[in-house]
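Note to self: keep these together.
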Amino acid sequence: MSRCRHVTLQNPVTLRPRTLAWLAAEPFRVFFPWAALLGVAGVTLWPVFFAGWLQFQPALMHSRLMILGFGGGTVIGFLGTAAPRMLGTHALRPVELCLLLLLHAAAIGAFTRLHDELGCSLFAATLILLLLLIGGRLHRRTDLPPPAFALVVMGLACGICGTIMSSLNLDFQSAFNFRFTRLLTNEAFLLLPVLGVSGFLVPRILGLRSRQSFPDGPLPAPGWWPLLAESLLAGALIISTFALEAWGEARLGPAIRFCVIMGWWSRDAPGLWRAKAVGTQAWMLKMGLGFIAAAPLILACDPAHLIAMEHVLFITGFGLAILGVASRVIYGHSGSLPETKLVSKPFRWIVWLVVLAMSTRVSADYSMTIQNSHYIYAALTWVIIVAIWLRLVWSKLWTPDP
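Structure:
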């Protein structure tokens, strides 16, 4: 049995649906909608601020809610569901789900109360708990995860290091620390898991050959260790490009990162850019990966507008990829997998609205006369996107896989 099929078939069908144990076994059902709502809260800070209802500039809170709330919540939900299946071990228990959710909610609560150091500490504790829950299952595993899963662990480590540095105020000790902490927390934390997951998920969706598929078993199959070493090398190179960027190499760092990303996908998912996307959801995910790959090159072309250029990665890169992966997981775990291969007008609207939100947000930083209004337009567009997406997946979130 191949790795991809193994991950698909191991569902907790023996559990009673719509119970706490069922939700714990498939925590994406809780974390995905929670993360989506945090994304809405993160963007609505700007209209509220420009209306004069906030007494502080919300840039930091906005980034925390979007990256650590929306992005972090999706990562926790995905890994909490997928990691036990990859290891061939038991799913999360209800108490473990509750602890993860409470810690993540406490971190978000601290951010909204402007206690950034406390929020970063709580978020780091959330990721550490997630790693401990996954690591604690290793001794009972009946299988090995794909070698590229090392990139996922490295991404979580970047999130932990970045938030701990922020909680200890190490980011204010030097310009390098400030920039590197920000890059670890905001970019490496999400980029490395996307690269790690794409090696075994994207080939399934696009019908490509996967290097990450190995026979089931607790012992490494031939070729597993070399791919692990390659994954660790790719992750180290990615992190080094962020260090270069933090040192002031605003063009060289992103340019090298673009080369590493493209090199990784050309080896791990050969034919990714040539393969025809069957169904709108696959096209949506492919678009997100394309923007993730292109974003560093775009940033290298215009580092003077750093924040604007980063939103190409945040909105059309991570945003589309997160919504695409989340949709695939929800449809696949609700018995609706055949629907993912269909053409969907609502999902097409989501894609083009995401592109519109990105264009509006990026253009805001090129003209002060339109900046405030374009911040508001981009935020409202994202609210519409999430509303459409939740409408499409809501019933399937609570539908068990038959």
